[in-house]
Write a sequence for this structure.
């Protein structure tokens, strides 16, 4: 993979931006563009690699012929394992290797341009604040605790909660436990509302630190894992329809 000398990151902030761009490209390949990525990883072809690019795009290509390469190379031959294991397991394996490659590229730049101890620590902390590619793919993304969870009290509360959260993650939320205030007579009632929220697919109650998504048609809430929606996929959904509403629409 060739690198334009003019675009080589030289500061901590530039290296981090390069990391974020490559990471976004890899996440697209493994989530929203997964069908295209799967088709390009033909086991009949030679050793292939998945590259994340600084402009948030991705490509599947042969490794560079230059030895040693200008940048660290990602895992070689990812296409050979595609048909030998479950697709979910294969994608997870690619995600883990992609996380390792992202770190190696970032700290290669750090070593090349003489980052000192404090610079390396700062870079790692900035990177560590982001979910890994594997965490995004598997749906184990920790959301900030100030995101609002769903309530069953009335449709107005649901709509306002969804619109507040949609600025960042469409209709998807990871439901937090709301902080209690001493002397508030409404805290027990609010806890009861959250505890009474049921997943429209499995029927289980609300639990803290779980990823949820709301149907725009019936306004029911679902575990992301129950409807096979990850936080990364939710970011690209403008209007989510649950499986039940999708089936009803197709029958009309």
């Amino acid at each position: 993979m060739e690198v334009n000398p003019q675009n080589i990151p030289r500061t901590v902030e530039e290296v981090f931006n390069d990391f974020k761009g490559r990471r976004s490209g890899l996440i697209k390949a493994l989530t929203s563009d997964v069908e295209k990525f799967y088709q390009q990883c033909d086991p009949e072809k030679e050793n292939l690699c998945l590259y994340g690019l600084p402009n948030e795009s991705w490509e599947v290509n042969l490794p560079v012929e230059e030895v040693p390469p200008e940048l660290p190379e990602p895992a070689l031959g990812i296409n050979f394992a595609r048909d030998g294991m479950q697709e979910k397991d294969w994608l997870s394996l690619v995600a883990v290797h992609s996380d390792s490659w992202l770190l190696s590229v970032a700290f290669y730049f750090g070593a090349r341009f003489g980052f000192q101890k404090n610079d390396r620590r700062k870079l790692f902390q900035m990177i560590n604040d982001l979910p890994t590619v594997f965490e995004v793919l598997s749906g184990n993304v920790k959301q900030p605790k100030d995101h609002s969870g769903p309530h069953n009290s009335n449709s107005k509360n649901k709509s306002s909660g969804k619109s507040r959260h949609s600025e960042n993650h469409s209709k998807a939320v990871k439901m937090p436990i709301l902080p209690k205030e001493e002397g508030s007579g409404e805290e027990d009632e609010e806890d009861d509302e959250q505890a009474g929220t049921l997943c429209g697919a499995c029927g289980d109650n609300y639990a803290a630190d779980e990823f949820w998504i709301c149907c725009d048609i019936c306004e029911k809430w679902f575990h992301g894992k129950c409807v096979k929606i990850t936080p990364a996929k939710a970011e690209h959904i403008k209007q989510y329809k649950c499986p039940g509403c999708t089936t009803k629409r197709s029958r009309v």
User: Anything to note?
Assistant: The CA atoms of residues 3 and 70 lie 8 Å apart.
